[in-house]
Amino acid sequence: MDHFSTSKPPRKNTLAISQLSTLRWSFTEDVQAYASRGFSGIGVYRPKLEDFGLDRTIELLAEANLSVTSLSWVGGFTGSDGRATDDAIADAIHAVRDAANLKAETLIVLAGGQNNHIRNHARRTLCDALHEIAGVAEEFGVRLSLEPFHPGCGDEWSFVNDLQSTLDIIETVNSPNLGLVLDTYHVGMDEEVVRWLPDVVPHLHLVQLGDAKHSPLGEMNRCLLGDGCVPLRTILETLHEYHYDGPLEVELIGEDVETHSYDEILDHARNFLDRMPGRVEQR
Q1: Could you say which of 35, 89, 102, 107 has the lowest number of CB atoms within 10 Å?
Q2: What is the pLDDT averaged over residues 77-84?
Q3: Quick check: helix, strand or coil at residue 88?
Q4: Which CATH architecture describes the domain 25-274?
Q5: Interior angle at CA 147, CA 261 and CA 120, nearest 5
Q6: In sequence order, what are the residues at sequence separation of 6 or more whose Cβ sits closer than 8 angstroms to the Cβ of residue 81?
């Protein structure tokens, strides 16, 4: 059983790396590399968790003093990945239990592609699924986070593509455990993103940091932080201004980073975040 002291100072942004950034490494290699660079969080990727085992993962993360900033992902409720809706819901409920055991900050949810449904039907299917999963998540104390995906690279992953439609779905489902993920790769190049942040922050469970040299088109292609056209500094400044104190999780995948070793990617990410004084506060 955990014991929490009310005298602790409020936690500030946990700096984390998503395991998708080091996909070819083992779980043990991920943990050692992240912790050695002073990151205090890890975004856990479910296939890696399944391969390594839940109990071993909990033990390893405790030894390294790494908290789980996210577990990704569940979803596909529209059948776009070939599963029936009931199967996708059952999988999500299983992941809720894993997230609870990991004490994960949030469980990431992808809606699924529109999959030849009319948009209203796809939206209704998603909301019904979220109602059911959120009920279980509330029992386990797990937060769910719906992630909007840029349509240029995510049609098969999600029909929810922008912050406004994400907030509309959150309002419809009306669960205290449902919020959103803001991935700067998917929404950061929208000129309106900074204007939306004051409305988003109250529902924001996780910020994923990604950059790109052009708008998403086809496969996801992120570049090193600061090398692209996403206004990361402005976004971080605005999040700080509106008192976002949740995790900041780096997620870097794609051709533009494949020329770099994982060690180079992690070192660059750490250095980038260290150059954000007064905007990024490590817990």
Answers
A1: 35
A2: 88
A3: helix
A4: Alpha-Beta Barrel (3.20)
A5: 140
A6: 88, 112, 156
